[in-house]
Amino acid sequence: MKFRVERDVLxxxxxxxxxxxxxxxxxxxxxxxxxxxxxxxxxxxxFDYEISARLQIAADVTTEGTILVSGRLLAxxxxxxxxxxxxxxxxxxxxxxxxxSSRFNLATMPVNDYPELPALPELSGTVNGEAFAQxxxxxxxxxxxDDTLPILTGVKMEIEDDLITLLATDRYRLALREVHWKxxxxxxxxxxxxxxxxxxxxAKTLGGSGELNIALSDNSELIGFESAGRxxxxxxxxxxxxxxxxxxxxxxxxxxxVETSSLAEAVRRVSLVAERNTPVRMAFTDGQLTLDAxxxxxxxxxxxxxxxxxxxxxxxxxxxxxxxxxxxxxxxxYVRFSFTSAPKPAMITAQSEIDGEDQDEYRYLVMPVRLPx
Length: 373
Known about the structure:
Layout lengths: L1 E5 H12 L13 E7 L2 E7 L3 E8 L1 E4 L1 E6 H10 L4 E7 L2 E6 L2 E8 L13 E6 H11 L14 E7 L2 E7 L3 E8 L1 E2 L5 E7 H11 L4 E6 L5 E6 L2 E6 L18 E6 H11 L9 E6 L2 E6 L7 E10 L3 E5 L1 H9 L5 E6 L6 E6 L6 E9 L7
Antiparallel strand pairs: 1-5, 1-7, 2-3, 2-6, 3-4, 4-18, 6-9, 7-8, 8-9, 10-14, 10-16, 11-12, 11-15, 12-13, 13-26, 16-17, 17-18, 19-22, 19-24, 20-21, 20-23, 21-22, 24-25, 25-26
Helix pairs in contact: 1-2, 3-4, 5-6
């Protein structure tokens, strides 16, 4: 095998594919990248039995062939090369990378031992990549990081006709975001539980490439994403996701609206004195919100903000980390807190004007911390 390609193109392609490599591969060959050169293109692929990634780049191919080489080492080398064309050539069981005066010899691994990459399932529909990426970023903040509860490390994708609803929870907060898409089959009704980590990588690396193709297998075991010549597949999380939709309240008699950026900054400042597991208290009264944290002999902080309140005055307390992460997911000028009562979860939604209607395509529900009487 022999081909030439620009350093930046090769480095970016190798880095993207190597992202999917497992830090502890079950077998040594799965630490490698499969590189295949043929007819003016070079394809680079990775696979760990759960997630696969594959892309194609244009290259000047002199001799066709396929090699398997250590992915992380190759990524490090490509990033370090000078900005110039790179020649890649095999010599027996070695592969040589030459770029100006830099020359690297790497050992190859047996290609025949590498498992067959999963095929991309049949196309289910397309979605705007940027809209999908934003939706994912808003929802995954509520997914669990606790691997002892693998079900909750996933994001539930519920698909009904032209609407995708993303749902996530870690038992202390919930997030729901709706995004429209173009299904290949009108009236489609299905769901998938996707690892939050996988969705995050898709959003970051494919979300800015325009239209994003989503492909779900008929047996509901595999999901695929494809955009701008890049494709990734992932096994779905197996299990029944909790029915969290019903936890979002239908009737909330108390509403409070606060400017998003001002509240986020105030929460950040006040929570500086909050010890670990100490909440930030929020007292909503007519026309204002008082934030405070810290008690007794410890450090204390308080801040007053303008707020619009509809309904009874209410005092609640929240974990400052959960509150800050939720607020950071909103890009609207205002956020609206909707309460049933102080001990019940509070729902946060976007609002463009202080006295306008809330926009509920994104909903963030956070459990309050119980205050002593």
